[in-house]
Every structure is written in C-alpha cells, then in structure tokens.
Amino acid sequence: MPDVIIKMEELSKTFISKDRKGLRSKKREVQALKGVNLEIYDGEIFGLLGPNGAGKTTLIKCLTTLLIPTSGTAWVNGYNILTHENMVRASIGCMLMGERGLYWKLTGRENLDYFGALYHVPKPARRKRIEELSTLLSLGDYLERSVETYSSGQKMLLAFAKALINDAPVLFLDEPTVTMDVPTARKLRKIVRDLNEEGHTIFYTTHLMLEAEELCHRVAIIDRGGVIELGTPQELKSSLVTEEVITLEGVIQENVVQNLREIPGVKSATIKSESKGRTTLAVICDDSRQLLPRIIETMVGNGATVDFIKPHEVTLEDVFIARTGRSLGVDTRVVAQKEG
Amino acid sequence: MGLSVFSHRSSLGVILTVLKARFLIISRYRGSLFLESLLPLVFAAMPILIGVAVAGGDAAAGQNFLANVGTADYKLYMLLGASVFIVVSTMLWIVGFWIRREMEMGTLESIYLSPAKRIHVVSGIASYAFIRSSIAFVAALAVGSLVFGVNPFRGEVYAAVAFLLLGLVPLWGLAFLFGALILKIKEANSVINSLQWVVSFFMGVFFPIAAFPPILRYVALTFPPTWMNQGVRASLLNLSYFFEAWYIHTAVMFVFAAVVPLLGYSIFLSTEKRLKRKEGVGQY
User: Fold this and answer.
1) CB pairs under 8 A between A and B
2) Smallest CA–CA distance from A88 into chain B, residue
3) pLDDT digits (tens, 9 = 90+) for A253-292
4) Considering chain B, what percentage of its residues have pLDDT values greater than 90?
5) Superfamily of chain region A4-233
6) Are A202 and A195 in contact (CB under 8 A)?
7) Which of B14, B25, B110 is the closest to A117 by Cβ?
8) What ipTM score was computed for the predicted complex, to two decimals?
9) Could you read off the pLDDT of A202-244 as tens digits, one per residue?
10) Residue A223, H or E segment
11) Can you give the residue ranges of every domain in chain A?
C-alpha cells in the first residue's frame, strides 16, 4: 500500500452568503463542504469531479491553506494545514486561477523569477528551473515578452509553469485545460503524466469526464459538498455494469422526462444539455433493447420529437447522473444552500 | 519540499524581489513618477496663493503668519507640510492600491499560496513606497524651493532628516493598518479619498495644530505623522517642538516607532485570519 500524502478528516466549510435585492440583503448559510474524508496516495493522479458549485474549489482552497475550514482538518505531505501552513505551501505547486494570478506588465521570465523567490528557491536554482520549464513547456518564444501580449493559452501555460517553479512533490491543478485549445490541452495532459511518472502526486479537478478517465488513477465524485463516489474510473463505470445508457436527442419537454422516470426499469432520465430548442437526454435503464419501444412510445405520445437515438458505453458522467439524478452541467450552488 | 530553501538570505530575497518587481512594473507606466513629483507643488501652491490674496501681499502675509505661527516664512512652512504629507499619502496610497490591485488581478491569492511570510512581502512593498515617497519629497522640495524662492537648508537640516526617517517607521505600521482596512472592506478609492483629507487635516499641513480646539488637538497628537511634520518644521524653521523640548518630541516619536508597526502588523494578521475563516483573501 503506498503512503498517504494528503489526508482529510471530516473537512467542513460553511460560508455566510448574502442574497441582495436592491438595498436589502438576506444572510444565508452555504455549506460548501460536508465532512469530507479522503486519502490521496503518494505518486497518484487523483481526480476530483463535480459540477460547478459542488465544492471542488473550496476543498482545494482549504488544502492549499487559502481558506481555514469551519471544522475538521487535513495533512499535506505530512504537515497539518492549520498548524504548519508554511510547510504545506512549500510542499505544493498550484494552478488554481487559470490565467489570473500573473503580473501582466512583467515578462514571463520576470513572473517566474518573482514567484520562484516567493517560494524561497535560491537564485541559481531558480535560473536553472526557468530554463528547464522553458524547454518543457516550449515557452522560449515568448518568455521575454510582457504577459499582456500573450494569448489565453500562452497565459495558461505560464500559469502552469508558475505552479512548477518550486518543483514541489504535490501539484494542485484546478481545471488547468479549461481555456486551452485542443493541441495545447493534449500537451499539458502529457506533461502531467510525465510529471507523475517522475514521482509527483497530482490533485486534478475537472468537469471533463474524458480528461479524468484518460489521466486519473483514482477519482472522487463530489456533489453538494460531499464525496458520493470514490474509486478508479473503471471501478466507478463497472458499478453501472448491469445498467445501460441511451442518449436521445430532439424536442423534448420536461413533462416527458417525468413520464419516462415512471416507466418500470428506467433508473433515471436526465436532461444533459439544451440548446436552440433541442434537448439531449440520458436514460439509464436495466435493458435498453426491451425498454426502447416503450420509451419512444411514451415520448412521442407526450408530444416529443425524437430524431436521434444512441445507446453508448457507460462514462463517468453517467455514473454521476445515476448517483445524483442531475447532469454535470448543472450549477449546484443554489441547491447546496441552506436557509440560515 | 521541492526546491525551497528557507534562510535569512532567502527571506531578504523575498523583500528585494517584491521591491524590484514594483519598480519594473512602474517603469512600464512612463510619466507617472514625473506627474507624482508635481503633486505636492500644486498642493502647496494653493494655500500660499490664498495667503497672499487674503493678506494683501507677500510681506503682510508673512507678518500675519509670524504673529500666529512663529515664523514669517509661510511659504517654506506650507511647502514642508505639503512635502511631508506627500510622503504619508504616497505610503498609504501605494500599500492600499497594491492590495486592491493584487485582489483584482488574482495575484494576491498567488502570494498567499507561496510560503513567503506576509511581513517580508509587505516590507518589500513598504520599502518601495518609502523610496518612491522619498523621491517625491526631495523633488517637490527642490522644485518648490526654486518656484517659491525659499531656502530649505537654513535650519537644522540633519535633525529634519532624522525626524523624517524616524517618522517613516510608524508609517510602516499605519500602512499595515491601512492594508488591513482595504483587505476587510475590499475597496481602496473611497477609503483613500476620505482619509486623504482627514490625514492632511490632523497633520496640520497648512496650519499649526495649536489652532485646533483642545479635543481635536489631542486627537491630532495621537497621529504619528503630526509629530513627523512638526519635527521637520521645527528643525528647519526654528519653531518650537510639541511640549517645547526636542528630546520629549524625539522620545514620543521613538515610542510611536516601536509600538505602531507591531500594532499594525498584528491587526493585519488577525484581519487576514478572519478573512480566511470567511470567504478568503482573493474575494473582492
């Protein structure tokens, strides 16, 4: 069994948020994390999946000492986040804010040198490290230019280089490929795998299921502040092995979805996306071959138009839908609130 | 632990790197240092010209001023007040806007993610503010002396420089306090705009604080820049110190220098901790 490098014990975080209506405001308690217990092993790529507002960023902010949890605690690289904040910070490299967090008036090299100094990396080691990163991420062409002249993808790569400047054993990457074009994102994922092979532990959040399946050794699905599933991507997908998934597209009203859920054998029916009057629906059921005629009959009988039907392999998103009844595209911030 | 090596040298490296980065950034906004040097001139010119207009001439203004303040050199008095004020104001502006801009750019969270101690980062910023405000002070005094035809080197110049330097130490503490306020209310403009006038009022930039009613005078005396201003003026214009003796004046300034930075830094740290318990330092 590998060593545990990040350990969370009953980690909880509650925010007070204000709902404003004109000049009036009403306080609400928002429970962003609810007693999270997780162990991340040394040398693994650990994926944290969940929709917007599920608590991913709050969890990362607690682990990286940006936030103090309301209760519970955690250890990173053996150091407690509440009592040894500086040692935790020296043990981690972070890319949390995408292309933000850089000085736009400074060049790429000046930015890396600045943050290297803040991480107490000695000057000769800093210079060497910047050259290494320049080669690794092919930054050479634009390292001497002001960041304000960079494209969005170049800023993301520089932010990634910033996270690597202290060559820390643990890396926290929060949606690192979100504004990258496809080739750059592919390149970054390859570098993440290479870094992991060199021995770095990587804590990776994403809402891109394929990215998580491709990269992560283990995955936790987080929803409404709690971990609802944990395992390897294969284990999670196998948990739905007795179930099948059908994707349907067309003009589908909400009442049709309700009626589908009432068909015996249908485990869940969830709208995955809606665009320009067209809806994509995921139906999870026991036996698609047997139930498909009944599903189509119910839809057409209730006024829906179906123009595309596709049974497909179980994905991590299907696991999420099966466990929560919602798609990952749904923002859960509102439903996570609790009246204060 | 990666490449981090903690030592006194690396801590000094943090201060110097922050200082260097500030100069690199300001060097990319050409003209701002020049414009900043003109500000105290404009600031001092207004009351000087009002004095001349109201008193009916330079000599009459000087005589009136001598009767009320103790020196006829009202131009140098105003210029010194304006120049010391610009030191105080620059210090507070730079620290306040630094926190606000770092919040907006997302770099404040990047700083908080690093193992650099806050005192080293803020010391880098305060050192930068100190250098910039000193440049503004010297430039304003030099150009102002030429424009208004006054001699700033006629009194105890070394004593004036000593009071100026001693007065900068509690200013660091005030900058921490100011930083804590910006962290808390997450807005710099309104705080700076309102404090600007309050600070210049209590410092007695254009008049002696003896002109205040007793309660306001005592309030003004709890404010370290008031002592810094009076120390510089008393040395150069041969005016009396607060409580007459120079050594009492110096002793009070030493007490401020010892207490205010500690107080300011501890309030900054506790504000920061409170924020981390709530929404975090990056929210604005």
Assistant:
1) 131
2) B115
3) 888 888 888 888 888 888 888 887 888 888 888 777 788 8
4) 20
5) P-loop containing nucleotide triphosphate hydrolases (3.40.50.300)
6) yes
7) B14
8) 0.83
9) 999 987 778 888 899 999 988 888 998 899 988 887 776 667 7
10) strand A218-223
11) 4-233, 242-313
